[in-house]
Amino acid sequence: SNELETLNNYLTIKWTISFHTSGLREKFLFSEKPNAKNAKKLIGGKSFAGNNDIKRYKLQWGGWWIDYNEELAKKHKNQLPQKTLFEQEKLIICQNALRLRAAYDNKKFYCKDTFFVAQLNNNMRDKFDLKFFLAIMNSKLLHYYYANIYKGTHIAGGYLHYLIGYLYSLPVVEPTKKQQSDIVALVEKIIESKNESEFNKIDKKIDELIYKLYSITKQETEVIESFS
């Protein structure tokens, strides 16, 4: 049954680490490992360039750390998210990007508020693989959809601003077991890919499977392909 659902049925997307007062981030973030018992690897540590830690599908840690000192944060009236948010399998999603950009993480990276994290809803964990949702989020189809439906999210320089509420309303076609395992197998390959041409080849294959899943016609595909 190829009925359309929306992403919120499957995933929970959450805000990450924010520092609300200037000068606070310097108390918590370090460009090398701090001598602290709660030192955690951090995605998005570098000012203004932390966004580069997340590529499509792949995570490239920029070497930053956070001292996850919850007591110190409370003292500064700056609540930190619960550690469990970061310690389980998740997708890390860029808030601002030229196209929807998410990576897979099962290595317990912590992340700053240039990113959201997404996890499978409890009742979906038996039936779905998080990497399936990574594929649809990174697809040309959903980029096309988001950029056209949420025109108001365009910001300077061709960037799009991704909002949790809008991400939640993205359309999902439930895959068959076979469709899901075919897509997930390619996602696992693309995460391991070693060079750009290999990456692009697999990326194209994933897009083709997503078009098929959503019953997109050849004509529609041409429009979407020429859009990006």
Q: What is the highest CATH level, the class?
A: Alpha Beta
Number of domains: 1
Largest sheet, strands/sense/barrel: 4 strands, antiparallel
Number of helices: 9
Per CATH, the superfamily is Adenine-n6-DNA-methyltransferase Taqi, Chain A, domain 2
On the 0-100 scale, what is the average pLDDT? 94
Shape: globular
- The class by helix and strand makeup works out as alpha+beta
Strand content: 15-25%
- The tally of beta strands, per DSSP, is 12
Q: Which residues sit in consecutive blocks of at least 5 with pLDDT less than 50?
A: none
Topology as a string of helices (H) and strands (E): EEHEEEHHEEEEEHHEHEHHH
> What's the N-to-C terminus distance?
29 Å
Walkthrough of the structure:
The chain is an alpha+beta fold and 228 residues long. It has a single domain, classed as Adenine-n6-DNA-methyltransferase Taqi, Chain A, domain 2 (Adenine-n6-DNA-methyltransferase TaqI, Chain A, domain 2). The protein has nine helices and twelve strands. The chain has helices at 25-28, 70-75, 84-87, 130-137, 140-149, 164-168, 177-192, 196-213, 218-227; strands at 4-6, 11-14, 29-30, 39-43, 64-67, 90-94, 96-97, 102-105, 110-111, 115-120, 160-161, 171-173. It has a four-stranded antiparallel beta sheet with strand order 2-10-6-8, covered by helices on one side. Helix 4 crosses helix 7 (177-192) and helix 7 runs antiparallel to helix 8. The longest helix is centred in the C-terminal third of the chain and has 18 residues, at 196-213. The protein is globular, with a radius of gyration of 18 Å. The relative contact order is 0.17. The model has no long low-confidence stretch (mean pLDDT 94).
